[in-house]
Automatic annotation (TrEMBL), chains A, B:
Protein name as it appears in the record: NUDIX domain-containing protein
Domain Nudix hydrolase: 10-168
Position of the signal peptide: none
PROSITE patterns the UniProt entry points to: NUDIX (PS51462)
Species the sequence originates in: Rudanella paleaurantiibacter
Database matches in Pfam families: NUDIX, WHD_NrtR
InterPro entries: NUDIX_hydrolase-like_dom_sf, NUDIX_hydrolase_dom, WH-like_DNA-bd_sf, WH_DNA-bd_sf, WHD_NrtR
Length: 250, 250
């Protein structure tokens, strides 16, 4: 845990990152396990330097814990309840790990700083698991992908933060497919359906899914068909350069 | 301008409110004009007390400037660029209004506090203009509804904040119709279409709109028809108690 200083960071503001990974038709979340007694899993989190934007802070935090750079991340919600603080978790951590030098280094002032009320901005990303190499930080015992349906117990409100990220991921999937980079250059309708089924955790009717997805106007059907199959060759698609209608966002 | 104290508020965190109003098929925004020389329009804004949640702060700020209570508000985005500060605006304000007692009361320390970098959480609401009575605050010269297409010049990044709120309003309209309370108990398809046209600022094809909106599964068609019209009576609809599919949000 790098020592936060009152001068360097914006007070009482933190960032929590939910990194979704997709591989073999399964959706997972990247979660470090802390290198302390007591089995603590916590989302990659951190603070905002006075000299960086909140987006820059989110990317820095992500890279520091995972080695991942330059991926598409987006804020999805602020968690700002009055009682939101790491005090309970930190007290428990200290109690179980009294002998550890890392914690002894934490001065009382820093401890008080960290355990104040924090308003946290949630950021999420969705990446191809094959393309990232998670890296352990000093304070991590391990860092792993956990299936979104079998997450370990998370500290504080981090489980709620994952659920809110999942809600946003599903809501915005149609308009973010380009950014996520999860599909090859060209692909079949079946590959798209598998991606949607993994993210929504439900089957879509094969006779209805193509119409629904094509109505969104995010895919473009190519002349060339997929030729690997022995049976009737399916159409190939690619992503349009999608800009949603009526989107005044700068 | 009530004097902010360093102890009472979370540092460098503010809230900006975009209040959309709907009336006579037009979408407007509620904006106070500041009671200072220089024609300054600014969104209803404020800070977050240590003892309140960010949602509570948003409602308090809204009520303080508008007299509106208990309306549905939702956070939509955080504005967190490094250079985001009211310094330039405040310097200009002070220069133009040097003789004003209100500004003289602002101690240097408070001035420095207010003009630091602020990360701001945007909240938006959509209300029926007939149902609210905007109220002037001490520091407002006036408070008025401005058509969203003819907004006055706004301070800082407030124009961008309005655009982001508009983006979110359009994106989420289908799932929030209930909360907004803009339609009567029962209504015709034409009334729904007029609402959508005002908010999206574009016409929808009358032969296509009903199918599109009914596919969203937010409306329920009644047996009873509208009987006021002399010509063929249109169907009446009401809002379903809508809970969007796949919405894990708590």
């Amino acid at each position: 845990m790098h020592s936060p200083s009152e001068q360097d960071y914006i007070q009482q503001l933190s960032i929590d990152c939910v990194i979704f990974g997709y591989q073999q038709q399964q959706l997972s979340v990247l979660i470090p396990k802390l290198h302390f007694k007591g089995d603590f899993w916590a989302l990659p989190s951190g603070f905002v330097y006075q000299t960086e934007s909140i987006d820059e802070a989110a990317h820095r935090i992500l890279e520091g814990r995972t080695g991942i750079r330059n991926i598409y991340m987006e804020q999805f919600r602020v968690f700002g309840k009055t009682e939101r603080s790491s005090r309970q978790f930190m007290d428990q951590l200290v109690q179980l790990n009294e002998e550890m030098a890392l914690l002894q280094e934490l001065q009382q002032k820093e401890y008080d700083w960290i355990t104040r009320r924090f308003v946290s901005i949630g950021y999420y990303a969705l990446v191809d698991i094959n393309q990232v190499k998670p890296q352990r930080h000093d304070i991590d015992e391990s860092i792993d992908w956990y299936p979104v349906k079998q997450l370990p117990p998370l500290i504080m409100d981090h489980a709620e933060i994952v659920q809110e990220a999942l809600y946003t991921l599903r809501r915005d999937l149609d308009t973010r497919l380009n950014a996520y980079n999860l599909l090859p250059e060209t692909f079949t309708m079946k590959e798209v359906q598998q991606l949607y089924e993994a993210i929504f955790d439900k089957p879509f009717a094969a006779n209805n899914f193509p119409r629904k997805i094509l109505e969104q106007n995010i895919l473009e059907r190519l002349e060339k068909r997929y030729t690997g199959a022995a049976n009737k060759a399916p159409y190939l698609y690619r992503l349009r350069n999608h800009s949603p209608a009526n989107e005044p966002r700068p």
